Amino acid sequence: MSAAGSPNPEYVVARVRARRGSLFGDEEYRKLTRMGPAEIARFMEESSYGAEINALGSRHGGVDLIEYALNRNLAEQFDAILDWSEGSLYDLIARYLRKFDAWNVKTIIRGVYTDAEQEAVEVDLIRAGEFDDRRIRRLLEADSIDGVIEVLEDTIYGEPLREAYAEFEETGVLVPLENAVDRAFYERLLSGLGVDEPTRQYEAFLKAEVDFRNATNALRLARSGADIDPAAYFIEGGDLFTRSSLARLAQNIDELVEYIGDSQYGDELGPALRELEEADSLIAFEHAIDAALLAYGDRLGTIHPVSVTPVISYILAKERETENIRAIARGKEAGLSPDEIESELVIT
């Protein structure tokens, strides 16, 4: 586990490809939608989640057991990737995994905002980023959003959150705070990348991720009809929008859909855009964006098979597996039918 030395993509990619073969496929997901939580846990015990299910089974049960096992397995998988990595490869992977710090900050802020129990918040945390256990514990113990920001003062999130706090106090909604976290993460993610061809392709992938995030934000704002300035929620770094074009297009959902359809992402997102027009289903569009980003990462991984891109592609695929299994478990707990649960999954 070192940022020193020469990068070792051949070794890391070989290890990652071996693990990719153990990810659940569409058929496994369909089987899980027809099981109860206890059956899902037993199914996971016979898979790559066996160690986590066995270690946690004496303390947790049902959906809680599944949630804790998923998050522990995810963190351990990504810690292992960092342990294998050296040099600039380590740096590129580590900065991408900081997305889970951003996830945890937003999760904790939502928990404070809704006055949720600490244990209910903790089960949703993914300890795969840079924050150590001590900082996570301090964040969980914060009893106000101002207290959360204070714990983060020495991180990249401190100043942006402090600046967004005034708007949060004025509006009473979390959007300014959550967007401040996302902007801080992506600005750091895209800064100081290398100049070789594989890294430029990786940068193109990251820009697509920013574009898709901006597209989703714009569609949410267009659908909401709220009196919110879309430019205030623009994330720098993508190619699809400028701050002014996002602000203009978010005022008219038909123009926004047409603009995305005519862009370089039209082929990947065409079916989702049609569904958005016909069924007005933003959830389906967001799922399609996730699937498109997975496919885009996989495609770049074949262009530069010995680079950081196949590693990032695996990270996305593993994250998606975790979210799909979580959605199935929560759907079963809520009494949803298999078809209803399947509509909530991202399946490629």
Automatic annotation (TrEMBL):
Question: Which SUPFAM superfamilies does the annotation name?
Answer: V-type ATP synthase subunit C (SSF103486)
Q: Name one GO biological process term.
A: proton motive force-driven plasma membrane ATP synthesis
Report the GO molecular function annotations: ATP binding; hydrolase activity; proton-transporting ATP synthase activity, rotational mechanism; proton-transporting ATPase activity, rotational mechanism
Mention any one GO cellular component term assigned to this protein in its UniProt record: proton-transporting V-type ATPase, V0 domain
What is the recorded membrane topology of this protein?
Peripheral membrane protein
Question: Pfam families per the record?
Answer: vATP-synt_AC39
Q: Where does this polypeptide localize? A: Cell membrane
Q: Which UniProt keywords apply?
A: ATP synthesis, Cell membrane, Hydrogen ion transport, Hydrolase, Ion transport, Membrane, Transport
Database matches in NCBIfam families: AhaC, PRK01198.1-1
The entry's function note states: Component of the A-type ATP synthase that produces ATP from ADP in the presence of a proton gradient across the membrane.
Q: Which HAMAP family match?
A: ATP_synth_C_arch (MF_00314)
Name the PANTHER family on file. Answer: V-TYPE ATP SYNTHASE SUBUNIT C (PTHR38682)
Listed under subunit, the entry gives: Has multiple subunits with at least A(3), B(3), C, D, E, F, H, I and proteolipid K(x).
Q: Record's family?
A: Belongs to the V-ATPase V0D/AC39 subunit family.
Name of this protein: A-type ATP synthase subunit C
